[in-house]
Amino acid sequence: MHEPNPQRRVEATTVALCSLLSLGAAQSPAAPTPPTPTPTAGPRSPAAEPTPWPVVLGQRTAALERAVPIVDQVVLVPDGRTYLAEIAKWGPEGRWPVLIEDDFHAPRFVRAFEPARVIRRASVGAMPEARADREKLIASSAAAAISPGAVDIVAAAAARGIAPSMVVLARADDPAWTAAAALAAGRHAPIHFVDGSFGAPNDTLDAKTVAALRLELERAAERTALPWKGLGDAIDAFVLCHDFGWKCVPDLPAQLRIEIPSGPFPTGPGQPISTLDYLGRHADGVWWSIGSGIFGSETRAAYVAMSALFAPRRSVWLTNAYDAGPGWVAYDAPPAQRAFEKQGFRSQSWTREQNSLDGWRRILMGGFDCDALIANSHGVSTQFGLYGGGTARVEDVPIFDRPSVVHFLHSFSLQSPADPQTIGGRFLANGAYAYHGSVYEPLLQAFVTPEMLAERTGFLVPFAVAARVYEGGFARPWRTATFGDPLTLLAPPERIGLQRVAPPADGVATLRDEAVAALKRFRDERDDAAIVPAVRALALVGDDARTLQAWALAKDLAVAGEAAPHALGAIFRARDLEAFTAAFAAGGAKAPAARDMLWHLAQPRLASLSDARLASVLAAHPRGPDQSVDLEAIRTAAVRLMGREAWGRTVSEVAREAASDSVRARIMSLR
Hints:
This protein is of the alpha/beta class. Helix content is 39%, strand content 12%. Strands 13-12-14-18-19-20 form a 6-stranded mixed β-sheet, with helices on both faces. A 4-stranded parallel β-sheet has the order 6-5-8-11, with helices on both faces. Strands 3-2-4 form a 3-stranded parallel β-sheet, with helices on both faces.
């Protein structure tokens, strides 16, 4: 994020409820103004006005969440059809997380959720081939989860006396349908299946295409037969669970454009705005709904939705790389930290000198063990600035140890959200399930301050709603966007009033039972291969201590290469660089995140590196797309420990895989 003019005034922050959340500007478009947004109105008595619509929306969401007990289990399924069959078993008596089994998202979720048991379901078959049949199955499964036997979501919600508060747009042939099904069931939200193509996430939509997408959204709301045309009625949120271009260049009337004619970041023809900030408005710019988007594989989309519905949120980390000067100081972390702590969150913060590049890289070791990250930075889509002029790369984006909500105040982070070689794309790839950022240069005041975000979410305003600017010039269609469920509540479970109940005593074998059985085969039958499913099962249930014990048994066996990938996460969280290097070399180097974990553990220790094997592994596995950066960082130590000849051979091998001639030349210059 770029430095503001010291004369600009930032959005006023106050703890008075109606001052924080009286979003009157959302009811009428802001008048044309210079780039500087107008301040919010002064404090008003809460008794003088009705409860603001964002608070009502959050209260409705919280009431629905606590109305259905959470069964204390996680169910892992092998495919989409079995996923739907399991969701259809939800009902007023209880619901529980359902994940498509994998070795990246599932263990991260389970570690945070800490269920009484984790079980597997066998496949019940494949999804229907015909699109119409898939649509019918998805919608009817979600309806059955709301009211047993129902086939229509709106009717199922009505049978329970609940009016939906959002709509879901989906495509039955887009992998993000798994998020649509779960959110429709969990939020009692009708699904509207769209036709046509609306681009890929990294695309910029033209005026005609984004207008067609807006029409689909309005059709979705109209089909509910519920009030939707104003904030505070029935439908106040939407989520697009399918591919679409996150940037657009719509036909906006002059009074809705933000014009910045001069300065370091002037606006110009063809510059995009956020598709998600354009949608949900009437033609005159008045909001009727606040929305977000979800894309990705079936596995990740299911993880995103289940995290929004079930992941506990008890800890917040805050980082601030800004100076303490005029304009910047309003975005400082301590006021937000105090507000979060009053709400019952555990918190940590790093500001200014603590948030240098060296300091950041020390924090990266072992991953980020937080439920929410509120970060202030500046830069472009592939870099983010830290205090003292340090510049972090995409490879310095943290790996989350648990599902996390991220508010990243930064320019361009969601410019190409599907590209893991960009900041926002890497956050999503590394475990964030809700993310608020910008698709282009937004200027600082297009983001609310961390303190205001904390105060708003403290009133149970959903994260995607709390993160938006609703007054002043930047209330017009602009450049911020949110990934994930728009009704995610950033609040501890106790504040929402969530209740867990014991899982049924149905005799189903748990993953822990499977791990014990495999370990017995290993011990009693001398079946070395049995150690592999044991390590994997223990990793899936989030038992790091026993995963490390099982890995200690496996690491010297012929099957060590098969077991190693499942042990890497536990070793990484233990910050054991020597053990991680051994497991990585044994067979753990295949996962995309494995190299980042290796370097996150090693980078703060490069100055004192004394292990030739580690130097060799690091030199052979630099991170991209420009591997020369990592090779340059390790060159001195590697030449000293490996010898110049071995170093030269390794560099040549890396150069052969370079993505371009220019990168190859930079790599070869380091020989």
